[in-house]
Design brief:
This protein has about 290 residues and is mainly alpha-helical. The chain folds into two domains: about 25-115, no CATH class; about 115-285, Farnesyl Diphosphate Synthase, CATH 1.10.600.10. It has helices spanning about 5, 35-50, 60-75, 80-95, 100-115, 120-130, 130-140, 150-165, 170-175, 180-185, 200-220, 225-230, 230-255, 265-285. The protein is globular, with a radius of gyration of 19 Å.
């Protein structure tokens, strides 16, 4: 993308779309009328994420663009962000709060400038804005109670941490951004520079396993989500997502994110669909 293209609008699309995610985004499992609104939120978050991850933009320019997205979302005139315009229309139609959108913008402002995370609590605070708003927005669209956030928040945080582990080498190489907590790196005898290696050192493997150990209880807590939601379609979709989180965590236990990108296979998605829907049906009859 040429520099001139970066200045004609706010958005700098990376080409990624919902099919590239580890979990279904507004899939056929949920009510058809709600799918466009889930897609609108995903598009808004995706475009903001792409701004924050664009290596050709300065931190100041990234924040300016993200701020402008928030202004357009709130009704400011302008056509520079089609995603914000579409999101504004979705919020108007559904009555869902704009706070979830502003929360993800806050996370991506952090990404524009923050390169390191101190400890697990610091990382979880980032997830509070980068991940949990996604689940909360979908639950709000379905009219679910805020009590479901108790289960949705840990699921979204777990998925975010798993994604950080998947992308740890690329994040460091391309953006000099490291989500692996500094305290874990130090205590496990590892260092940031080891992320440039072709394979993980023993110390870095200990860091991965420690983060997975801390993620497992989040996934365990998330198993209550399908039981808590009232919408049958959303119960099925969340059942699938919980199952995908379990499978991805297991793959990261066995795989090396430096040697290759550890990711879910088509078989994982097929198995998660069958098992997740079965679990959701069983929970729905409980």
């Amino acid at each position: 993308m040429a520099q001139s293209e970066l200045t004609t609008g706010l958005e700098t699309p990376s080409g990624k779309w919902r099919e590239d995610e580890n979990f279904p985004v507004g899939s056929w499992l949920i009510r058809p009328a709600l799918r466009p609104h889930v897609h609108a939120f995903y598009r808004f978050a995706r475009e903001a994420d792409d701004i924050a991850d664009n290596p050709r933009l300065s931190a100041e320019d990234k924040v300016r663009r993200l701020d402008r997205m928030g202004e357009i979302l709130e009704g400011a005139p302008g056509t520079e962000s089609p995603a914000a315009i579409a999101m504004r229309a979705s919020l108007r139609e559904t009555g869902v709060t704009a706070q979830h959108c502003h929360d993800v913008l806050r996370a991506f402002r952090l990404d524009a400038a923050k390169r390191r995370y101190r400890d697990w609590d610091d990382l979880r605070e980032y997830c509070r804005y980068s991940a949990t708003p996604v689940g909360r927005h979908v639950l709000d669209l379905h009219g679910e109670s805020q009590g479901t956030w108790t289960y949705s928040d840990p699921l979204c945080d777990a998925l975010q941490v798993l994604n950080h582990l998947q992308d740890c080498a690329a994040d460091y190489r391309d953006l000099d951004r490291v989500y692996l907590p500094e305290t874990d790196l130090a205590e496990c005898g590892s260092a940031v520079a080891e992320l440039r290696a072709a394979r993980s050192s023993a110390g870095l493997r200990r860091v991965f396993d420690r983060l997975l150990d801390q993620t497992d209880p989040l996934i365990a807590a998330a198993r209550g989500l399908p039981l808590a939601v009232q919408s049958p379609g959303l119960r099925r979709e969340t059942g699938v997502i919980v199952t995908l989180a379990e499978r991805l965590a297991r793959r990261l236990r066995r795989g090396d994110p430096l040697a290759m990108r550890v990711k879910l296979t088509r078989g994982d998605f097929a198995a998660a669909l069958l098992f997740g829907v079965w679990r959701a049906r069983r929970w729905g009859q409980a």
